Automatic annotation (TrEMBL), chains A, B:
UniProt keyword annotation of Iron present: no
Pfam families according to UniProt: NUDIX, WHD_NrtR
Keywords: Hydrolase
All residue ranges annotated as the Nudix hydrolase domain in the record: 7-150
GO molecular function, one term: hydrolase activity
Domain of life: Bacteria
Protein name: NUDIX hydrolase
Record keyword Transferase present: no
Length: 242, 242
């Protein structure tokens, strides 16, 4: 049967979070791209694009993210396939990924693009808790990604995806507080985190206006997040490569 | 651009588990459909079909499952989108669902189809731990579904999807033992399960060759499995409707 266009198209988009330093605690933040054509011209949308017939899903997520925002995440995982019939004027099934990028790497990558003259256009960072009305069902998609992140932080070392290689317990607690949107008791937090056995104290301290705070790192042998039998060789998980 | 066929097609398949009563403990079991055409003619495959342009993903999973096996699950959830470039001779992205069906309902549905003369063809049940080589990447898909089930049983009441409304603690323990493929200490299990606060003791007992065992039911207010902000009105979750 001859068709002038496919009945169902497949898109791939990514919700990529970083923790933006802010007064009074860090803020979960994500880049969005302003659409330059209908449908939803002028609205902000998740970075993404059409799946290429010769490309896997993970690769498509990484490629479309890089092409639209210039970013390469340190953690990337498939989230969910959104396929309601009327989420888009034509029928589109979107395979959604979520990702994490350490803020120091965000700065590094932005600086590299600025120096090379390859800074992406139409991209702006938004705090996750103050998004405008996005294109398509992208508000609902971000909600789901936030929910997944909040759940995952409770039983995995996913917080590592938002931290530098070495960090203080206060840094780690701030990540949890930002994700969970609530303050945590420092003593309880320290106890619980030390009980997980995933933190390795280093000999280094951060000095500054407060008393020196010990720097920790994650035990590299512990997986960032249990992935099960899915092996995704083209996922960018730099933290896991150590 | 005129195309004679879409570059990328979208399929939906379901891994549906039941717990088959067996000597020495129950066995996780799933129905497969024998393919009657290439690719992989003659091989067993997961029940599924092509996504219809006018149909949502959850509805497609339920429909293709019903059309090929005659079954209606009591729990249905999206698992993962499998989209490696060479998983199929032509490019197919498969949105995979996993499901649970209580064994008493399996028997009920099979009997209803037999009476109506609508028993499905080419369908056979297999134990999850002794599958033949399946079509496409369906062995890897079943592995991932098993992994998800095993993980989920540890932190949710997903076991309820495999049990009748009222059950003994031994019944519940047997579900966990079958899913986890190991024996559990009955006293420890009782303690842990009672600590979850999700079980309600009834006034009824099961009598038989052993001393009477109290029947329990799940607290209906507790969700079968945390779904987050994704509301899927066409998912069949009879247990959640109570």
């Amino acid at each position: 049967m001859t068709r002038t266009s496919p009945d169902i198209r497949v898109a791939v988009s990514t919700v990529i979070f970083t923790l933006r330093p802010a007064a009074g605690g860090a803020a979960l933040s994500l880049p969005l791209v302003r659409r330059t054509r209908d449908p939803f011209e002028g609205r902000w949308a998740l970075p993404g694009g059409w799946l290429d017939p010769d490309e896997g899903l993970d690769a498509a997520a990484a490629r479309t993210l890089a092409e639209t925002t210039g970013l390469a995440p340190n953690y990337l995982e498939q989230l969910y396939a959104f396929g309601d019939v009327d989420r888009s004027p034509s029928r589109v099934v979107s395979i959604i990924y979520w990702a994490l990028l350490r803020h120091d790497l965000v700065d590094q990558q932005r600086a590299a693009h600025a120096a090379a003259g390859t800074a992406p256009e139409n991209v702006q960072w938004f705090d996750a808790d103050s998004l405008p009305e996005l294109a398509f069902d992208h508000n609902a998609i971000v909600d789901y990604a936030l929910w997944r992140l909040r759940n995952k932080v409770g039983y995995s070392r996913i917080a590592h995806g938002l931290l530098p290689d070495e960090f203080t317990l206060a840094d780690l607690r701030e990540v949890y507080e930002s994700i969970l949107s609530r303050k945590l008791d420092p003593a309880n937090f320290r106890r619980q985190v030390e009980a997980t056995g995933t933190l390795i104290p280093t000999d280094r301290f951060r000095t500054g206006s407060h008393r020196p705070a010990r720097l920790y790192r994650y035990d590299g042998a512990v997986e960032l997040a249990a992935r099960g039998p899915i092996s995704t060789p083209d996922s960018t998980n730099r933290n896991e490569e150590r």
